[in-house]
Design brief:
The complex is a heterodimer of chains A (505) and B (151).
Chain A: E1 2-4, H1 9-13, H2 16-30, E2 35-37, E3 51-55, E4 58-62, H3 70-75, H4 88-91, H5 109-114, H6 119-125, H7 129-139, H8 151-160, E5 167-172, H9 181-188, H10 190-204, E6 208-213, H11 218-233, E7 249-254, H12 264-271, E8 295-299, H13 300-312, H14 314-318, E9 321-322, E10 325-326, E11 328-335, E12 341-346, H15 351-358, E13 368-373, E14 380-381, H16 392-396, E15 406-411, H17 416-430, H18 436-439, H19 441-453, H20 459-473, H21 477-481, H22 483-492, H23 494-497, H24 500-504
Chain B: H1 3-16, H2 24-35, H3 42-50, H4 54-63, E1 75-80, H5 83-86, H6 90-101, E2 114-119, E3 131-133, E4 136-138, H7 143-150
Parallel strand pairs in B: 1-2
Antiparallel strand pairs in B: 1-3, 3-4
Helix pairs in contact in B: 1-2, 1-3, 3-4
Classes of the chains: A alpha/beta (505), B alpha+beta (151).
Chain lengths: 505, 151
């Protein structure tokens, strides 16, 4: 009998380690032949710790399980959820990037291969660099970190650049609140990221890769470091990638708690050992990136999606989606929701369906007041905009952005003036300091919002003006997009910005 | 700490990272791991090794939240302040925890037991409020769970 207990940090945060220990102890006491497998999470966080029991090849799920439930679990008397694949939240998904996440032991390379892993890399090895780049272009894959830049075009630039040394840098500095897809794939299926980076290396002629992984993810760091060691020992990485005679190796680098290092040029400076100050573009990192060499900088999900594109073909991937947003997006449903977790789906599902239907509304049953999509730099969307399809251009048209696809739900007790204030405060804390509108503007933004709260109606106009200056005068998205949450809060929730005096009188 | 001990430990750390591309952050993380903070006396040694000015090393240390110039308390408690956790009551939880400990953000209890710092997202956004004690993550955090982790 195999028993799966996730090692994902969300599952651990909800007590999975204690459940795994209880399963081992109880099974030993009963003399049962039980193999405990620490898999990734299936992504249904409200059911964590979600335990699966496999008997005769069929897996049945139970959750949330506590250590006290374990005797009943082994007796077969604990009420279960049936197969994970039949749980509606899971059944409605299209799992391409996350196909293996939660299914296998993340560090079992043989299980990885048995579930389709390495097929993409083997196919890529037989192709030329240009053919690999063309395949990525044909898939329509766009950068999943937030900007949505076509991945194939970025690779083409690095492919065409002449240099004796090129790099693949994976941006795993997933700092946006409400996002955890990068963490989940790194903890649940690390080899898919390694395989994606190796394919990128073959495509552009890079022999060295770095994963810049934030220090706030100690579990992901541990899994990725172990996976790289296994990859080297098994010939997936190193001087002869899968016997192809090609070189590709990689290293995990740990960030140090700076949000701005998720911005690619700031990340490169940090990786070089400098302050994480944003660089002006041009030069593009694709031409002068890490240590001044041509560098592919891609988000975790972009790179982790590459293997399935090569395994199933570019067309298969491109057939999903809406308009210019091709393929699938792992939407992360978070905040005050009934069913929170990771929901991978083709682009195009209306926001309201995600919030009211998939997420089941708020956890406490109160009405939804606002949904922040795309992290701390994303707009606050009111229910009136819930018909917006989840896709790049469609959100842009509504004054928002999908970013890294985090969806944070707030109930009607949320004070949107305070949320706008927090956006400015966060920008002030995390600004790298290079651009004045961001460094000083964010501090003035907090003060201006406090003036509004104290009853100074004229400060609203000033805030709009300040936001314009920040948008136009900042090099990167931190200063440039902080006005999104601020202005969307003010526009969509005017009552929260009606001065306290007005409300009191 | 005696200087010879610091010198020996630093020599070992610097040797371990020799040959790495962009070794500054890996070195600083190793120093944090060894001492729990970056001792002022380590700065000139790092500067010498990397052929940088002391001010440049200091500039890197001061840029990142993770690098401390003084030791933290016995436990380092981080509570998430980001939006998803705010949506499920992180602010109220923080207030209760800080009041109970009698300290503010970034401060250490007088007995040196706990240092509390804000963190902006632990990737536990579907099971907030989130907190972390050392490397141990806590989901749906409340005072009881945090107290247990600090025990």
């Amino acid at each position: 009998m195999k028993i799966y207990v996730p090692r994902d940090s969300a599952a651990k945060a909800l007590g999975a380690d204690a459940v795994a220990a209880a399963v081992r102890t109880e099974a030993a006491a009963r003399g049962l032949d039980v193999t405990v497998i620490r898999n990734g999470t299936r992504g249904m966080i409200w059911l964590e710790p979600l335990v699966e029991i496999e008997v005769g090849g069929a897996r049945r799920a139970f959750g949330p399980v506590t250590p006290a439930d374990v005797p009943a679990l082994l007796d077969g008397t604990l009420a279960g959820l049936g197969p994970v694949e039949d749980i509606p939240f899971f059944a409605r998904q299209t799992r391409l990037t996350f196909a293996r996440c939660g299914l296998i032991d993340p560090l079992d390379l043989d299980a990885y291969e048995a579930h389709g892993g390495l097929a993409g890399l083997r196919r890529a090895i037989a192709m030329t660099g240009q053919q690999i780049v063309d395949e990525v272009k044909d898939s329509g894959l766009r950068g999943r970190g937030g900007a949505g830049f076509p991945t194939g075009i970025k690779w083409q630039t690095v492919h065409d650049a002449q240099s004796s040394r090129k790099y693949i840098v994976c941006n795993a500095d997933e700092g946006d609140s409400g996002t955890f897809a990068d963490r989940m794939i790194m903890e649940g299926d690390p080899f898919t990221l390694i395989e994606g980076m190796a394919i990128a290396g073959l495509a552009v002629g890079a022999t060295k890769g770095y994963v810049y992984l934030r220090s706030e993810y100690p579990d992901a760091i541990e899994v990725m470091q172990e996976a790289v060691c296994i990859g080297r020992a098994r010939g997936l990485l190193g001087a002869d990638v899968l016997g192809s005679g090609r070189v590709f190796d990689m290293e995990i680098r740990v960030g140090a708690g700076a949000y701005v290092c998720g911005e690619e040029t700031s990340l490169l400076n940090s990786l070089e050992g400098k302050r994480g100050i944003v660089r002006a573009k041009p030069p593009l990192p694709a031409l002068e990136g890490f240590l001044g060499r041509p560098t592919v900088v891609n988000n975790v999900i972009s790179l982790a999606t590459v293997p399935v594109i090569f395994e199933k073909g570019a067309q298969h991937y491109a057939d999903f989606g809406l308009g210019r947003s091709k393929g699938t997006m792992p939407v992360q449903i978070a905040g005050n929701v009934k069913y929170g977790g990771l929901f991978e789906t083709a682009f195009g599902m209306p926001l309201g369906t995600l919030v009211e239907d998939v997420a089941g509304g708020t956890a406490n049953g109160r009405p939804v007041k606002a949904v922040q999509v795309g992290g701390p730099l994303g707009a606050y969307m009111p229910p009136a905009k819930f018909d917006t399809p989840f896709a790049y251009e469609e959100f842009d048209g509504q004054g928002g952005l999908i970013g890294h696809a985090g969806v944070v739900v707030f109930d009607d007790t949320a004070d949107m003036l305070q949320m706008a204030r927090f956006a400015m405060e966060f920008c002030a804390v995390e600004s790298c300091g290079k651009c004045t509108p961001c460094r000083i503007g964010a501090v003035r933004g907090v003060e201006t919002i406090d003036r509004i709260a104290e009853g100074d109606a004229a400060a609203k106009e000033l805030l709009v003006d300040l936001c314009e200056t920040m948008t136009d005068g900042s090099l990167c998205a931190l200063g440039g997009l902080t006005p999104y949450p601020v202005l969307s809060a003010m526009e969509n929730y005017p009552d929260d910005f009606a001065t306290r005096k007005e409300a009191a009188e | 700490m005696s200087t010879p001990q610091l010198t020996d430990t630093m020599a070992e750390i610097l040797a371990r990272h020799r040959g790495q591309e962009g070794p500054m952050l890996p070195i600083l993380h190793s120093v944090m791991e060894a001492f729990g903070y970056i001792p002022g006396d380590a700065v000139p040694l790092i500067a010498e090794e990397l052929n940088l000015g002391r001010a440049e090393v200091h500039g890197v240390i001061s840029f990142y939240h993770d690098f401390r110039k003084d030791p933290a308390g016995h436990h380092l408690l981080k509570i998430c302040r980001a939006e998803a956790c705010q949506a499920v009551g992180a602010n109220a939880l923080t207030e209760r925890v800080l009041t109970k400990l009698g300290i503010g953000w970034g401060e250490t209890t007088p007995d040196g037991r706990v240092t509390v710092e804000p963190v902006y997202c632990l990737g536990l956004c579907a099971c907030g409020p989130a907190a972390m004690v050392g490397d141990r993550v806590i989901g749906r955090a409340d005072e009881a769970k945090i107290e247990e982790a600090l025990a």
